[in-house]
Structure formats: C-alpha cells, structure tokens
Amino acid sequence: MSKTYSPKRDEIDRSWTVVDAAGVPLGRLASVVARILTGKTKPTYSPHIDVGDFVIVINAEQAVLTGRKEDQKVYYRHSGYPGGIKQETARSLRARFPERMIEKAVWGMLPKNRLGRRQLRKLKVYAGAEHPHAAQKPESFDIATVLT
User: pLDDT tens digits for 42-79?
Assistant: First the structure.
C-alpha cells in the first residue's frame, strides 16, 4: 500500500522562468503563467502547498488583446468610499501601467486565498525587455510551444 506524497518545505525546488509576452494573447499568456506559479507543471504538485516557480514576464506592453477588447474591456477599482468606483479601459490602463493588465489576468486564475496571494508574489512583470533578476539565472520559456 502506497502513501500519498506531500512535499516538505525544504524539499521544494524553485526555479526562475522568463516568459516573453510580445505578440501573445493576454488570456493565453495568463493561463500558462498561472500554471507555472501554482506548480502544476511539476510532478510534486500539491494543491494545498505552494510548490510553484518564480515567473518573470517581459515585454508586457506588447501583449495582445484580440477583437475590440482594447476599447471595450473595462477594469474597475474602488477607493473604499461611497461612490468611489473608478473604471478604465484596457487601452488607457496599458498606457499608464502595462504590467497591471497581466497581473490582473493572472490573479483571476489563481486561488482567492492565502495560498493564491503567496503565489502571486512570485510573479514579476516588466513593461520592457529588461529585468533585474539576472543573478537568479532564469531559464527562458518559449510560450509558442505550449500554445500550438
């Protein structure tokens, strides 16, 4: 009789992955990134333990929204005060903070609890092609192989 394996904290091996968002649809990019963050690409995946890897997304400003979503997709936020709801289209959000579009899309695909918040902290998004994580020796991930 075999027992269920549950990885211990010091047995978890985390690596760093670079994903290039240039020319990739936002939702498809977010689903791939969410799978890496949760650890579903590893054989040691466990749904109640954070076993995922760190993900660096570069060229966030070049992620693609299909159709007319650039003008029709609306992002909402609330100040916490009565009548404090704000709305913004994807085009204006991309002009101000292109990183937030990817962060919001990935957050929508993660669990909404302490585990999901811990996994989201491992996501690093940059608008351009440069990132300050060269010391971690990240591996590049070709997202085109997953999407085809």
Answer: 999 999 999 999 999 999 999 999 999 999 999 999 99
What CA–CA distances, in Å, run from 144 to 18, 73, 93, 137, 147? 13, 25, 26, 21, 5
Residue 34, both tokens:
């969410």
Paired sense of beta strands 85-89 and 74-78, if any: antiparallel
Q: How far apart are CA 26 and CA 91, in angstroms?
A: 13
> Measured between alpha carbons, how far is 120 from 122 in angstroms, rounded to an integer?
5
Closest to 58 measured CA to CA, from 136, 125, 133, 148: 125
Confirm whether pTM is higher than 0.90: yes
Quickly name the fold that domain 15-64+98-147 has.
Ribosomal Protein L13p; Chain: A; (3.90.1180)
Give the residues of the chain that fall short of pLDDT 50: none
User: In the chain, where are the structural domains located?
Assistant: 15-64+98-147
